[in-house]
Amino acid sequence: MSEGVKTIFFSGINGIGMSGLAKIMVTKGYNVYGSDIAEKPVSKQLRDMGVGMFIGQEAKNLEGKNIDLFIYSSAIKENNPEYKYAVNNNIKKIKRGELLALLMNDSKGIAVAGTHGKTTTSSMLGITMLEKDPCIVVGGIIPEIGSNSKVGNSEYFIAEADESDNSFLYLTPSYSIVTNVEADHLENHGSYENIKKSFEEFIDKTSDIVVLNKDCHEIKKLNLKNKNIIWYSINDESADIYAANIEYKNRESHYEVVKNGESLGKFRLSIPGEHNISNSLGVIYLAHEFLCDMDKVKEYLYNFRGANRRYQILYDKSIKIIDDYAHHPTEITATINAAKKIETGKITVVFQPHRYSRTNFFLNEFAESLKLADEVYLLPIYSAEEENIYNISSEKLAELIGGNTRVYSEEEISDRVLNDNSSENVYLFMGAGSISRIANTIKNKLPL
């Protein structure tokens, strides 16, 4: 951090990335203030830690506080009154990703990137390396630490690296894991070619070891200059580390891990899906490289229930309610297929499309992935403050899915779930907007 910085203001502090960094900075002894447009559960956590919180974003939030550094999220635009105040008063301002880089780049940084799976993978890595006392900043709440961040007292710094706005290019990690590369956030990148170039740059900036998913064909097509590449796979035994003898039993995944021809033994996961076996392999490789106790690593992975909103079971009695962050067709496909392997009841997906741009770009792919469910309830598109310049709607998606699929209001979905008297039916709530609030509201109305 720059010398002389004592007081920091976070504009958009309730965001999962911003709140994690705010917690780190207040724990490090900085005076921290922040604002957001609405109250969220994390707001109370931040207040309890000593953060000066403001609900609503106004210039007066910064007045008289001697702010040395203004941190802003990608949601904050140049016409934001707090941003304008910082400009007009010559307050140094940096993006969230730049602050993360300032913290990580002076450490033995381990960054986890990828279009899908980076929150789960970085969370897995964080808990398996707890014995090393790392600093952790991820994009979800990790139940084992009760937070999305942790201040550590070692040289290790584990972070989720965000490609959505290219902020991961501020990072120069010592180690990195890349789970996959796919088209997404095209509203920011412009084209898939640009996304691939960004990942190439990120990988080539990793100084020591970069661990890549050999099962992702798009990664193998990248033009990479980095020679320190380790490959992991659940399908290819020529990889440096791979999973063998995969079995699914008693709602668990069982598999052997082989690294450089040597068996590291049997591993078990309680969270479902081949994609999570895959996510674990890069974690296991680095944990072994860092000389972590492998018996503890196995225990941590088995007890890992996922970061919040990653196949998070909210209710499991007569019916089951699951909350999941999946908001891209590939993620939806993986999550539904994982559910089919372990759930016995009818699977109804309650999906809220996120952003008009993403829904428009992947309309056909969304339809195909959602067809895997037994039934689909759609909510209107969550705009995330985008304008609908595409003339896209959930009704168009419903038409492509076919059958009895249609768009429901929150109240209609609540009534259908609450009045379901069938046994073992599974309601899988998916999306990145307000869908989690809807799922939790319904859960709170069900009998204990």
UniProtKB/TrEMBL annotation:
ATP binds at residues 114-120. GO terms for cellular component: cytoplasm. It is found in: Cytoplasm. Keywords: ATP-binding, Cell cycle, Cell division, Cell shape, Cell wall biogenesis/degradation, Cytoplasm, Ligase, Nucleotide-binding, Peptidoglycan synthesis. Pfam families: Mur_ligase, Mur_ligase_C, Mur_ligase_M. Residues 309-433 form the Mur ligase C-terminal domain. Pathway: Cell wall biogenesis; peptidoglycan biosynthesis. Residues 9-106 form the Mur ligase N-terminal catalytic domain. Its EC number is 6.3.2.8. One of its GO terms (molecular function) is ATP binding. One of its GO terms (biological process) is peptidoglycan biosynthetic process. It catalyses: UDP-N-acetyl-alpha-D-muramate + L-alanine + ATP = UDP-N-acetyl-alpha-D-muramoyl-L-alanine + ADP + phosphate + H(+). InterPro entries: Mur-like_cat_sf (IPR036565), Mur_ligase_C (IPR004101), Mur_ligase_C_dom_sf (IPR036615), Mur_ligase_cen (IPR013221), Mur_ligase_N (IPR000713), MurCDEF_pg_biosynth (IPR050061), UDP-N-AcMur_Ala_ligase_MurC (IPR005758). Residues 112-286 form the Mur ligase central domain. Cell wall formation. Belongs to the MurCDEF family. This is UDP-N-acetylmuramate--L-alanine ligase. It comes from Sebaldella termitidis (strain ATCC 33386 / NCTC 11300).
